[in-house]
Amino acid sequence: MRVRTTAMAGALLLLTATGCGAADMTKQASPFANAQGSKSVTLSVQSWVGAQANVAVAQYLLEHKLGYHVDTVQVDEVPAWDALSQGRVDAIMEDWGHPDQEQLYVKDKKTITPGGGLGVTGHIGWFVPTYFAKQHPDVTNWKNLNKYADQLRTPESGGKGQLLDGSPSYVTNDKALVENLKLDYQVVFAGSEAAQITQMRQFAKEKKPFLTYWYAPQWLFKKVPMTEVKLPAYKEGCDADPAKVACAYPHTPLQKYLNTDFAKQGGKAAALLKKFKWTTEDQNEVSLMIADQKMTPEEAAKKWVDSHESTWRKWLS
């Protein structure tokens, strides 16, 4: 889930029933953040399960291999930058691109330091179930979506086709895209990632068609195969004006960020987080254990760590 200020990947954490909204850590200090002399780390957990997978593994290694106490706090994307700048959290493990915050905190104030790439590339898009795409191959071109609006109508979409989104708290381009591409669709918010997943799985169980805002990496693709609808090609700057967006979402190499003081003084913990880099397959493996197999984050992290020593061992060197 997720993200650019004009294209935020929405997806709320399954283990908290994805909750609607997260704490504003600009006003709530962690009891462990910046504790003088304590061997502790505070990690921001964005509200989608892929981000939770990153934090779960980082936390497990920090605690069990380096002897740190790790505190985690769930923070929405933009407030997380504020909290990181103020030292209320020490690190963000997955950012989908916030150019305004990067300019302010990394380049101007220098209170946040880039922590390197996560190793995962994120992409938001519109998707239909593959079984529907096979029946109607032309639905995968946005120019043909109006042809299928009637089949994609729901009681919630007000006589138009339904474009299913997650939480209304996320910043997406979808309403602008529907308007600017003159599509006969209504954006309908499920309320959370969990609710969105539940609806998609129910549609798939009944083999009903649906059109949804979704993103990769995401474990659900293994359970409900989906095919992307091609929107007008993304070009740099095409989403600069949120009201005029008429192009696809970009592919975004996901990044980590550290509080600058922590990056300099965080010792082995900061070094591990800077070196933390894994693959989409790694993240999906842990996400699937958490979200679908109902493991706790620690159980999922332990299982992954036990079977991938060659990957994480170099993060400790």
Query: What value does the Rg take, in angstroms?
Result: 20 Å
- Beta fraction of the residues? 15-25%
Assembly state of the chains shown: single chain
Mean pLDDT over all positions: 89
Task: Compute the number of strand runs.
Answer: 9
For the termini, the CA-CA separation is 31 Å
Classify the secondary structure makeup into a structural class: alpha/beta
Q: Determine the fraction of residues in helical runs and give it as a percent range.
A: 25-40%
List low-confidence stretches. 1-37
What is the overall number of helices? 11
| Envelope shape | globular
Largest sheet: 9 strands, mixed
Order of helices and strands: EHEHEHEHEHEHEEEHHHHH
Give a verbal description of the structure.
With 317 residues, the chain is of the alpha/beta class. The protein is 33% helix and 20% strand. It contains 11 helices and 9 strands. The chain has helices spanning 49-64, 77-86, 99-108, 130-135, 174-180, 193-205, 260-265, 267-275, 280-291, 297-307, 309-312; strands at 40-45, 69-74, 91-95, 112-129, 161-165, 185-189, 211-216, 226-229, 251-259. Strands 1, 2, 3, 4, 5, 6, 7, 8 and 9 form a 9-stranded mixed beta sheet that branches. β5 (161-165), α5 and β6 form a beta-alpha-beta unit. The longest helix is centred in the first third of the chain and has 16 residues, at 49-64. Mean pLDDT is 89; it is low at 1-37.
